[in-house]
Specification:
The complex is a heterodimer of chains A (about 325) and B (about 290). With about 325 residues, chain A is mainly alpha-helical. Chain A has one domain: ABC transporter involved in vitamin B12 uptake, BtuC. The longest helix of chain A is centred in the N-terminal third of the chain and has 27 residues. Chain A is globular and about 60 Å long. Chain B is an all-alpha fold. Chain B has one domain. In chain B, β1 and β2 form a beta hairpin. The radius of gyration of chain B is 19 Å and the shape is globular. The chains are: A mainly alpha (about 325), B mainly alpha (about 290). At the A-B interface, α5, α12 and α14 of A face α4, α9 and α11 of B.
Chain lengths: ~325, ~290
């Protein structure tokens, strides 16, 4: 059973969003860069959590959909000159389509076989990105993805002074923030809906779900596609943010990274993966200025987490809050 | 139509690759068969095996027979490392969610590969072929180094030895029993905890040995661990997780698909390998020679 969040936590998302909007006002390009990174990864990790945390399907190939989204937006915007307005939804659409095909086969398998098949599909995507030089740029990837056109915002700036004077990277940050907030809102609605409840039921006991007449495979496939769509959207945003798309976006180690983020924040709590993304990226920024051995640190954190705090940061915070409340209530 | 001697050379190189992969993947498959855990760190054990062999060769200096001592020593060192990891950490995750076990082995990948970087740096290390085997042989117009021939023979002999131990000895019977029913075996008075440690050590030994033996053929570099582990996964999945002959068959198929894929579709041979893995999982999730899990 998941413990109920404190009332203050219900306002936290709005507060976090407001705070995120203020980051560029700090005036540091670096902070905006880090914040942008966090926001995109938060969406990626939350999309994975729909599968791992809510439906109980451990995917080891979620990077595939991130990569597909990134290449879709990148190719459309760089090579075809398509506007971001079309290229962004296309990232989600194509990633979702691939998730539908791959997922169709994956949900027929259970546990370790499911994980292995998601891994195999992700490696197929990676191999195509890696070798199809004419289209994807192969090993070298595809640098210099253009930013969306912000000309209209600059023109708007003539009338509304608050809009004027930002750099393109900052406009892009605001855009990312709005889009990710929208996606997270939709995901939250999905998780809270009857559909989301059925996913949780499947996680807890697939046999029983089957008994009460739930078509488990169809629900799992829907979750798989939805997770793919949002991972694709995150990938689309990331390619532009990163100013380039590379095959390792779809490599299996990327899938592990996002799993670690999800676990660090707390699986099965909605905002846990986002918190995980924030914690991990901030930590990474701190650590890399001291040592080049970030993987060593990350591995150690992971071990501590697995043995000490399997509920992740969100789980640990909730447990702490509950203990405090019990103590206060008992006094 | 390609030149037959070229086809022969190509299939031989595929076979050599297959025998290496078999060595490594059989360790992975053994651990999975008994402990029901896919060990991502197995590739890292392989890499550490290669580094340890390099280190031991450095210490021992050149001379006949030295390489073999180094290879064996490296494999033993990796076995001890595997045993320590199992006993001190991994043991506490049995019975927990599979995801935690997988992520723990991934944490090992991160930690151990950085430790290797700290100890051996990022420059590639190479080990020269053992002096006894520097020559080569001309077979049907293809030139085959003696060392490759040895690997070609070593693969099947280790496979046979393994099969013999598993089928004919008491220890092998106990291991097979542990794969089927842990509780009953414990009730029969077998120390299952110790057995698990031994199996983990044996699996790690095979991984380390694979790494040590490949050191004279390929450069030892950081990153070789994450590459090989996916290949080993492909092999065990094609053959059947936990199935011994399946792993052998999987390695043979993998080697041939890769080496002929490079010949006919140079760009898509990696693709073909993963497509094959996906196809096997779709049609027969338990692999070509495996049995469905209960």
């Amino acid at each position: 059973m998941t413990p109920r969040a404190p009332a203050a936590a219900r306002w936290a998302p709005a507060v976090a969003l407001a705070a995120a909007f203020c980051v560029p006002a700090l005036g540091s390009r670096f902070y905006t860069f880090v914040a942008n990174d966090v926001v995109i990864w938060a969406l990626f990790a939350t999309s994975l959590n729909l599968l791992v945390g809510y439906t109980g399907l451990v995917s080891f190939g979620h990077a595939a959909y991130f990569g597909i989204g990134a290449y879709t937006t990148g190719l459309l915007m760089k090579k075809a000159g398509v506007s971001f307005l079309l290229a962004f939804p296309a990232a989600g659409g194509l990633a979702g389509a691939f998730a539908l095909v791959f997922g169709f086969f994956c949900v027929r398998l259970t546990r370790i076989y499911f994980a292995m098949l998601t891994l195999a599909f992700a490696q197929i995507v990676w191999a195509i990105c890696f070798k199809w030089n004419e289209v994807t740029g192969g090993e070298q990837g595809m640098p210099e993805i253009p930013y969306p056109d912000f000309g209209w915002l600059e023109r708007l700036g003539a009338a509304v002074p608050a809009v004027a004077g930002w750099r393109t990277a900052e406009y892009y940050y605001f855009l990312t923030l709005v889009l990710v907030a929208l996606c997270l809102w939709v995901l939250r609605r999905i998780v809270g809906s009857p559909f989301g409840r059925i996913l949780t039921t499947i996680r807890e006991n697939p046999e029983r779900a089957e008994f009460i007449g739930v078509n488990v495979r169809r629900y799992e496939l829907s979750a798989f596609v939805l997770a793919g769509v949002f991972a694709g959207l995150a990938g689309g945003l990331f390619g532009i943010f990163n100013r380039g798309v590379f095959p390792d976006f779809a490599y299996w180690t990327k899938s592990s990274e996002v799993l670690i983020m999800t676990l660090l924040g707390g699986m099965g709590t909605f905002f846990g993966p986002g918190i995980g993304a924030l914690a991990l990226i901030l930590l990474n920024q701190q650590i890399v200025s001291y040592t080049e051995y970030w993987p060593l640190v990350l591995g150690t954190i992971l071990v501590v987490l697995l043995f000490g705090f399997p509920g992740g940061l969100a789980g640990a915070a909730l447990a702490l809050w509950q203990r405090a409340r019990r103590r206060l209530g008992g006094a | 139509m390609p030149d037959p001697s070229f086809v022969f050379a190509q299939s031989l190189s595929g076979l050599t690759a297959a025998m290496f992969l078999f060595l490594i993947a059989s360790g992975l498959s053994l651990i999975f068969g008994v402990l029901r855990v896919l060990n991502f760190a197995h590739g890292t054990f392989y890499m550490l095996g290669a580094y340890s062999a390099y280190q031991l060769v450095q210490w021992l200096g050149p001379g006949p027979g030295r390489f073999w001592i180094a290879a064996l020593g490296a494999a033993l060192a990796i076995a001890v490392l595997g045993g320590l990891v199992e006993r001190l950490l991994f043991r506490h995750l049995y019975g927990k969610e599979e995801l935690y076990q997988l992520l723990f082995t991934y944490a090992l990948v991160l930690i151990l590969s950085d430790v290797a970087k700290i100890v051996w740096g990022t420059q590639q290390k190479s080990v020269s072929r053992p002096p006894e085997l520097t020559g080569s042989l001309s077979l049907f117009g293809a030139i085959v180094p003696h060392y490759n021939l040895l690997i070609l023979l070593l693969g099947p002999s280790i496979a046979l030895a393994f099969w013999f131990v598993l089928q004919k000895t008491r220890a092998g019977r106990v291991i097979r029993a542990a794969a089927l029913d842990r509780e009953t075996l414990g009730a029969l008075g077998v120390n299952v905890d110790r057995l698990y440690t031994l199996v983990f050590m044996l699996g790690s030994f095979l991984g380390g040995l694979g790494g040590a033996l490949i050191a004279p053929m390929r450069a030892t570099v950081p990153g070789m661990d994450t590459e090989i582990i996916v290949e080993a996964f492909v092999v065990v999945v094609i053959g059947g997780l936990g199935s011994f002959w399946g792993t052998f068959l999987g390695a043979l198929i993998y080697g041939q698909v890769l080496s002929f894929g490079i010949l006919f579709f140079p760009r898509f041979s990696i693709f073909a390998v993963f497509a094959l893995m996906a196809a096997v999982l779709i049609v027969r999730p338990w692999g070509l020679l495996g049995r469905p899990l209960q």
